[in-house]
Amino acid sequence: MLVVDDEPGVRKALQRGLRAEGMDVVTAADGPSGLQLASTGSFDVVLLDIMLPGLSGYRVLERLRKDGVTTPVLLVSAKDGEIDQADGLDLGADGYLVKPFSFVVLVAQVRAVLRRVGPETGRGTLRLGALEVDRGLRQVHWSGEEVGLSPREFALLDVLVGRAGTVVTKDELLRAVWGEEQAVTRNLVEVYVGYVRRKLDAVGAGALLRTVRGHGYLASDAELDEVITP
């Protein structure tokens, strides 16, 4: 989940609460950063404040929909007027929350949106810099050049880019890529990360996958590093 809000206290509170609900949360503090992160297509839902520095939530949403990003967006505003809500929904928002809102209601809305969109959200294209991961066609391109991956390698890269900007542990990769297969160890994760990294290296994209020692693996680039708030 991506939370875009310019108030540090709000970001921290939502990040803490949503993580307690079992969600992975990335935050951004302004409109341009939120747009850059959301444009990757790697989030299941975006919680987007309307009053943001640099670019309003309305304009962020408008740009996302214009660029074909279909990620569900819940708008947040201190305004409760019908016109404001209608404007947001007309731009392609999937819901509208008025501040101050109940955290319980927020979580319920997030889950309701995810139920509505269902598995279709997993069929779009993920973008990280010049890297594109087409989940529908199961193809990967770097600056237009195809990167040939095996089905297992694609699944691993899909998980990592799908959670770009966050560290994914070896255990999480084991569950997501290998499921309940017997005799699969963490060492196999290292082997396959190596396979994928070498193929990305061959086209100049190897730096996108990083090892975070003692924790797991991270898919990110310099631009993404700059906009993710701690």
From TrEMBL:
Every OmpR/PhoB-type domain range: 123-221
Residues found modified as 4-aspartylphosphate: 49
Keyword Isomerase tagged: no
SUPFAM superfamilies from the UniProt entry: CheY-like (SSF52172)
Annotated keywords: DNA-binding, Phosphoprotein
Domain Response regulatory stretches: 1-114
DNA-binding span(s): 123-221
Record GO terms (molecular function): phosphorelay response regulator activity; transcription cis-regulatory region binding
Gene3D superfamilies in the cross-refs: 3.40.50.2300, 6.10.250.690, Winged helix-like DNA-binding domain superfamily/Winged helix DNA-binding domain
CDD domains associated with the record: trans_reg_C
Cellular component, GO annotation: cytosol; protein-DNA complex
BP GO annotations: regulation of DNA-templated transcription
Pfam families: Response_reg (PF00072), Trans_reg_C (PF00486)
Keyword DNA-binding: yes
InterPro entries the UniProt entry points to: CheY-like_superfamily, OmpR/PhoB-type_DNA-bd, Sig_transdc_resp-reg_receiver, WalR-like, WH-like_DNA-bd_sf
Name assigned to this protein: DNA-binding response regulator
